[in-house]
Amino acid sequence: MKIVVCAKFVPDATADRRFRPEDSTVDRAGVDGLLSELDEYAVETALTVKEAGDAEVTILTVGPEQAADAVKKGLQMGADAGVHVLDDAIHGSDAVATSLILSKALAKLEADLVVFGMGSTDGGMGVVPAMVSERLGLPAVTLGSEVTVDGQTVRIRRDGDTASDTIEGTLPLVLSVSDQANEPRYPSFKGIMAAKKKPVETWSLADLEIAPDQVGGASAWTEVVEVTARPPRSAGTIVTDDNGSGASELVEFLSTNKFL
Amino acid sequence: MSNVLVLVDHTAGKVRKTTAELLTIARRLGEPVAVFIGDGVQEALPALGQYGATKVIALTNADLTQYLVAPKAEALQQVAAKVEPAAILIASSTEGKEVAARLAVKLDSGLITDAVDVVAGDGGPVTTQSVFAGNYTVQAKVTHGTPIITVKPNAATPEAAETSPEVEEFDVTISDAAKTARITESKPREATGRPELTEAAIIVSGGRGTGGDFGPIEAFADSLGAAVGASRAAVDSGWYPHAYQVGQTGKTVSPQLYVAAGISGAIQHRAGMQTSKTIVAVNKDEEAPIFELVDFGVVGDLHKVLPAATEEVTKRKA
Ligand SMILES: Cc1cc2nc3c(=O)[nH]c(=O)nc-3n(C[C@H](O)[C@H](O)[C@H](O)COP(=O)(O)OP(=O)(O)OC[C@H]3O[C@@H](n4cnc5c(N)ncnc54)[C@H](O)[C@@H]3O)c2cc1C
Ligand SMILES: Cc1cc2nc3c(=O)[nH]c(=O)nc-3n(C[C@H](O)[C@H](O)[C@H](O)COP(=O)(O)OP(=O)(O)OC[C@H]3O[C@@H](n4cnc5c(N)ncnc54)[C@H](O)[C@@H]3O)c2cc1C
């Protein structure tokens, strides 16, 4: 079985994430980046399936030069190969365009099982898996908090707002997993050394038969009009509880502000 | 005036508050046309009329509810082809976002998710999104196709505008391809009797500092008529169900009042609550980062402060 994990390179959430003033796109070069933490759960899922049977795991990323780090992290965790779609024309792509690039690459890779994270930690739209499923005409089982692959059947448990559902589909299929699905492994020293020898291919848009004007900022179907930093919250009142004083003052605050 | 489609979010005809919000927003952009999928349209009609739906398009094809999101997107595509709407508004739930994602591909249209506000602009709707854990606000618009926008709960205050909409039955054909993933079992969650997290005006959340005892959190929440939330640390420890997690991988909430008890205020938690109108924290560590956000903070033990506060609130309310 051929498993492909779509993994995104994102700016570190604990660093000072910002936008590029010149075109209001995310600054992906000036801020430290990493494999989106939520995609580690997808890598772990793929590796678990592989260990239970016979499968090859490829990490697929679309992103700037530094995004090679995301592929590398997946390889260090235990994936077998990587594909990095890299092309200057991709800069500024929106979700619709990103899903087009991923779909073409997935078709070329002839994936049986495509695994996604639940959402990136930067854009966080949570829409790319559904878009890719739509484009490839494959079934999608999304947001699995528990995943079992049983022959050709993929079954997940999805914990929704009103119910916990069991959802099933047949391979080939698109799967996305939540951060409840597993505990992603850390790369071992052996894994880090082995990753250096694993094959990574870099593909351009031309390799995927995508015209440059089909993607990127110029043809994005959504446009950012304005970006504003949120004004810092004004400093609040902080009291220290002394034998019940904290509760009284808290209730007084709630009362004054009409929450009672 | 042009039509604006609103996908109705409901359970067996009981319309959720987000739909009233979407209809209110739709009126800023054109004439709201509600799309109702499933059973119970007659029951839903008064609520849809109250918030200004000029027409209700009802789709009752059984395939629409037995399978996952793909058939709903197919149905909306067919409705859109007939109505030629100026925009399509969908609630920002996990299902809503997936329906929107598929629809965007089908209609060759731009998609904006998680809008916290939508207004009419020169070239179509202009949305506001709160991004990067709430540290930035982004104004955006769709420049290609039919703008598809998913809107977060509480993005607008529902404003009544009484109409008496007609119901138009609409026949859709669902392809076999859209029926490939199926729900084989569904276990409904037990009702708590508390308001729903994403819609609540007040939320009281507990974290690792509860030490596993959510009793004081629930009691304080009940005294205020609030919903209960939890940090990921509390959820991961098995103390509270994941459906109540607030933060990046849980719910994003924006209530009038958010009370964080025994929660440190990590960036991923902030991402889910930073836009709350008023923030209160109870934490025994005065250095906890949550205090950077608060309007009012108590440095103290939540096991002492919350029960005393609950008693006081109950007394005042009596
Ligand atoms: C703050 C912000 C707001 C944005 N708002 C919008 C908007 O409203 N509309 C819009 O069209 N675009 C928007 N974008 C751009 C959008 O985020 C990117 O186009 C992105 O490539 C796709 O969306 P996502 O990261 O939200 O993906 P999600 O849908 O959240 O990602 C889900 C999964 O898809 C996979 N994946 C996503 N991107 C890649 C990739 N490049 N390589 C490999 N796998 C990937 C990962 O497995 C990931 O876990 C926004 C970007 C930012 C930073
Ligand atoms: C990709 C990713 C996604 C994540 N998503 C989320 C998310 O959606 N939601 C989320 O919450 N987190 C999320 N996290 C985890 C987040 O980083 C923090 O680990 C988490 O929020 C910590 O929870 P906490 O504040 O309850 O626990 P801690 O950080 O351990 O804080 C506990 C606090 O309780 C206080 N305390 C202890 N005892 C008492 C007492 N008796 N009375 C009062 N105060 C007391 C302590 O002083 C401390 O400040 C995510 C992390 C990652 C990497």
From TrEMBL, chain A:
<protein>
    <recommendedName>
        <fullName>Electron transfer flavoprotein subunit beta</fullName>
    </recommendedName>
</protein>
<dbReference type="InterPro" id="IPR014729">
    <property type="entry name" value="Rossmann-like_a/b/a_fold"/>
</dbReference>
<comment type="subunit">
    <text>Heterodimer of an alpha and a beta subunit.</text>
</comment>
<dbReference type="GO" id="GO:0005829">
    <property type="term" value="C:cytosol"/>
</dbReference>
<comment type="function">
    <text>The electron transfer flavoprotein serves as a specific electron acceptor for other dehydrogenases. It transfers the electrons to the main respiratory chain via ETF-ubiquinone oxidoreductase (ETF dehydrogenase).</text>
</comment>
<dbReference type="GO" id="GO:0009055">
    <property type="term" value="F:electron transfer activity"/>
</dbReference>
<keyword id="KW-0249">Electron transport</keyword>
<dbReference type="InterPro" id="IPR014730">
    <property type="entry name" value="ETF_a/b_N"/>
</dbReference>
<dbReference type="InterPro" id="IPR033948">
    <property type="entry name" value="ETF_beta_N"/>
</dbReference>
<comment type="similarity">
    <text>Belongs to the ETF beta-subunit/FixA family.</text>
</comment>
<keyword id="KW-0813">Transport</keyword>
<dbReference type="Pfam" id="PF01012">
    <property type="entry name" value="ETF"/>
</dbReference>
<dbReference type="InterPro" id="IPR012255">
    <property type="entry name" value="ETF_b"/>
</dbReference>
<feature type="domain" description="Electron transfer flavoprotein alpha/beta-subunit N-terminal">
    <location>
        <begin position="23"/>
        <end position="212"/>
    </location>
</feature>
UniProtKB/TrEMBL annotation, chain B:
<keyword id="KW-0813">Transport</keyword>
<protein>
    <submittedName>
        <fullName>Electron transfer flavoprotein subunit alpha/FixB family protein</fullName>
    </submittedName>
</protein>
<comment type="similarity">
    <text>Belongs to the ETF alpha-subunit/FixB family.</text>
</comment>
<dbReference type="GO" id="GO:0050660">
    <property type="term" value="F:flavin adenine dinucleotide binding"/>
</dbReference>
<keyword id="KW-0285">Flavoprotein</keyword>
<dbReference type="InterPro" id="IPR001308">
    <property type="entry name" value="ETF_a/FixB"/>
</dbReference>
<feature type="binding site">
    <location>
        <begin position="262"/>
        <end position="269"/>
    </location>
    <ligand>
        <name>FAD</name>
    </ligand>
</feature>
<feature type="binding site">
    <location>
        <position position="208"/>
    </location>
    <ligand>
        <name>FAD</name>
    </ligand>
</feature>
<feature type="binding site">
    <location>
        <position position="283"/>
    </location>
    <ligand>
        <name>FAD</name>
    </ligand>
</feature>
<comment type="subunit">
    <text>Heterodimer of an alpha and a beta subunit.</text>
</comment>
<keyword id="KW-0274">FAD</keyword>
<dbReference type="InterPro" id="IPR014730">
    <property type="entry name" value="ETF_a/b_N"/>
</dbReference>
<dbReference type="InterPro" id="IPR014729">
    <property type="entry name" value="Rossmann-like_a/b/a_fold"/>
</dbReference>
<dbReference type="InterPro" id="IPR018206">
    <property type="entry name" value="ETF_asu_C_CS"/>
</dbReference>
<dbReference type="InterPro" id="IPR014731">
    <property type="entry name" value="ETF_asu_C"/>
</dbReference>
<feature type="binding site">
    <location>
        <begin position="245"/>
        <end position="249"/>
    </location>
    <ligand>
        <name>FAD</name>
    </ligand>
</feature>
<feature type="binding site">
    <location>
        <begin position="231"/>
        <end position="232"/>
    </location>
    <ligand>
        <name>FAD</name>
    </ligand>
</feature>
<dbReference type="Pfam" id="PF00766">
    <property type="entry name" value="ETF_alpha"/>
</dbReference>
<dbReference type="Pfam" id="PF01012">
    <property type="entry name" value="ETF"/>
</dbReference>
<keyword id="KW-0249">Electron transport</keyword>
<dbReference type="GO" id="GO:0009055">
    <property type="term" value="F:electron transfer activity"/>
</dbReference>
<feature type="domain" description="Electron transfer flavoprotein alpha/beta-subunit N-terminal">
    <location>
        <begin position="4"/>
        <end position="185"/>
    </location>
</feature>
